[in-house]
Amino acid sequence: MPAADLALVIGRIALAGKLISGEIARASIAGGLGYSGDTNVHGEEQKKLDDWTNQVFLSLFENCAPVCSLISEEMETPKHFERNCHSREHASYALMLDPLDGSSNTDVNGSLGSIFSVRKRAVRHGNDGRDLLGPGSQQVAAGYVLYGPATQLIYTSGAGVDMFTFDPQIAEFVLWKENLKMPPRGPYYSCNQGNITKWNPGAQNLVRYLTSRKDKNSSYSMRYCGAFVADFHRCLIDGGIYMYPGEISSDGKSKGKLRLMYECAPLGMVAEQAGGRASNGKGRILDVVPKDIHDREPVYVGSSIEVAMAEEYRAEG
Ligand code: AFP
């Protein structure tokens, strides 16, 4: 992606991050918490902030020339910005988003995130987003904004991972870590262990192994925030594995919960660019080809040693 286009897109993401972190901070006193009364494309009840954050991205990217289409967890079909599409036929991009990841944390003042992925549109494309149904290795940039005690922006455009911290005193993101590398192994595993009986035996055995270690240097502690971005971020800094195994459904198939194109693939790209790995339990997640823009996939992401372990345990059969 040309540097000027990348700068424009990341600049808008940063602006969205500033607006969203401000709104989250005052949501409890401004009536912004709770459910909106609507459901999203996945049948999940939307929080007021889910809808609000989606609108922020829509309004900021409407006039961002490189971005022709916006695909979001909160919208069934892609949103096209006709003017952008027509002005940039040969260098137009799609922005894929989870505008507010971990939204069950909104009402309890927990960490949240916004996840983004950028893909190049085909020169001739329709409005249904089918031209974007390629593997995650086709992403040209990806990253997230983490709304925690500090707001941070982490992104990669395929040449390493950089991390910025928002300084509220100057209202700017400041570079904190350049070309960040993830430890090859880590002390943490992160999953919703309350679901363990619904998983494939391989994923259950992996957790049994992780919890069986007695030696202080090779044992694991569990950490789980319930927001993919926040749980992944810990792995990125300290090492370890985040997993959301598939749940075995009545037809005997393992079904993932996290969305492939705007959750698993972007954080998978960040992980790889930081020297880690991302898998669907069988192989590289960036090789998985979606059938639909809203597909879901099991995910195992983090330090290379622990993610390899998930595959060795045949976490997804
Ligand atoms: P959304 O808030 O974007 O729907 O995503 C939440 C999420 O998919 C992911 O961020 C969490 O890791 C996961 O759900 C937590 O869900 P559980 O309650 O199933 O553990």
Brief summary:
This protein has helices spanning 3-30, 48-61, 82-87, 201-210, 228-238, 260-273, 304-312; strands at 35-39, 45-47, 67-72, 79-80, 93-101, 112-120, 139-147, 151-156, 161-167, 172-177, 188-190, 221-222, 240-244, 247-248, 254-255, 277-279, 299-302. By secondary structure, the chain is of the alpha+beta class.
Describe the structure.
This protein is an alpha+beta fold. Helices cover 29% and strands 26% of the residues. It has 7 helices and 17 strands. It has helices at 3-30, 48-61, 82-87, 201-210, 228-238, 260-273, 304-312; strands spanning 35-39, 45-47, 67-72, 79-80, 93-101, 112-120, 139-147, 151-156, 161-167, 172-177, 188-190, 221-222, 240-244, 247-248, 254-255, 277-279, 299-302. An 8-stranded mixed β-sheet has the order 4-3-5-6-7-8-9-10, with helices on both faces. A hairpin with a 5-residue loop joins strand 1 and strand 2. Helix 1 runs antiparallel to helix 2. The longest helix is centred in the N-terminal third of the chain and has 28 residues, at 3-30. The chain is globular and about 60 Å long. The model has no long low-confidence stretch (mean pLDDT 93). 1,6-di-O-phosphono-alpha-D-fructofuranose (AFP) is lined by residues 44, 73, 98, 101-103, 192, 226-228, 257-258.
